[in-house]
Amino acid sequence: MKLLGRLTSINVRKVMWTAAQLGLELDREDWGAGFRSPQEAGYLALNPNGLIPVLIDGGFTLWESNSICRYLAAKAGATALLPAEPQARAKVEQWMDWQAGELNNAWRVAFMALVRGQPHAPEAVAASVASWNRHMAMLDAQLARTGAHVCGDAFTLADIVLGLSAQRWKNAPIARAELPAVDAWLQRLSSQPGFAEFVDNGMP
């Protein structure tokens, strides 16, 4: 299997961390900022959004990083990461969808302004920081309830996608809320295969 996307992308790293958990070797090619452009016609034929990453598995192509993570886990039969039981699976996917939608939308303006250097109005940046902290507090409350991982005792895909998001929040140059459950959870995640390489690697 081949993965198209630069390693500095958080969405590429979540796929790579999933692969590390599964013991899968992905042939990764650099695409995106500083490398080949995903606006090239050949890439757009694979993903009309022109975004990274894209997974190629033989004649099958897939985009959207969370969907790629689900596919890899399902293909490997890794029911620990993605449960087969409908309600348990739905909870994992609920938190994955929350990460891709609600949480990502909260931090986007602040991150792009303060880390990527894009121009944004100060009040928009402040509102984004406040929203980012508010959403992370929701995650903290969930982790305080479970006392372990996002969906309970077991490490799942929800921990992979949200672990990367939480690490970004910890590294961002913002005033952060005190979230002890998130801190303790990140410490627990640090023992997982692939964490040092794909999460706690100094990349934003």
TrEMBL record:
Q: Which UniProt keywords apply?
A: Transferase
MF GO annotations: transferase activity
Q: Which domain of life is it from?
A: Bacteria
Q: Name one Pfam family in it.
A: GST_N
Q: What SUPFAM superfamilies would the database entry show? A: GST C-terminal domain-like, Thioredoxin-like
- Domain (GST N-terminal) spans 1-80
Ranges where the GST C-terminal domain occurs: 85-204
Family label: Belongs to the GST superfamily.
| PANTHER family, per database record | DISULFIDE-BOND OXIDOREDUCTASE YFCG, GLUTATHIONE S-TRANSFERASE-RELATED
Protein's UniProt name: Glutathione S-transferase family protein
Organism (species): Pelomonas aquatica
